[in-house]
Amino acid sequence: MPDQDGVYHTLQELLNAGPLVLFFYPKDDSLGCTQQACSFRDHYAELQASGVSVAGVSRDKASSHTAFRDKHRLPYPLLTDTDGSVHKAYDVGGIFGFLTRRITYLIGENRTILLAHEDNLKMTSHIQAVLQQL
Length: 134
Fold this sequence. Notes:
By secondary structure, the protein is of the alpha/beta class. The chain has one domain (11-133): 3-Layer(aba) Sandwich (Glutaredoxin), CATH 3.40.30.10. It is 36% helix and 19% strand. The protein has 6 helices and 5 strands; from the N terminus they run αβααβαβαββα. It has a 5-stranded mixed beta sheet. β4 and β5 form a beta hairpin. The longest helix is centred in the first third of the chain and has 12 residues, at 31-42. It is globular, with a radius of gyration of 13 Å.
């Protein structure tokens, strides 16, 4: 998938540095998504110290990701899945394929899913679940 700068990333590339937090969110710069994304930003140094990288995924366009990332100083890539193929592969689609379920995966270097955490109401529960798993 391309990131906010148009640079393409593969899952394998993202895992080369170690485990990956891959979090799916519905919409750039909405209240809940901002809280979720900023909670990963606020704990980013701690995650990096544990050898974990982070990437966010939504169906928004790269230009929206760029504005969102810059506005909130997000230190990790925001990946664009405009056709929804990655959302489908990770079973993140909502009711009848609309909306996006808010799910965070912690993926090990061997592509094993170590954690799948879904919470559409409490945005900071995602980082808390990851930190507890680590």
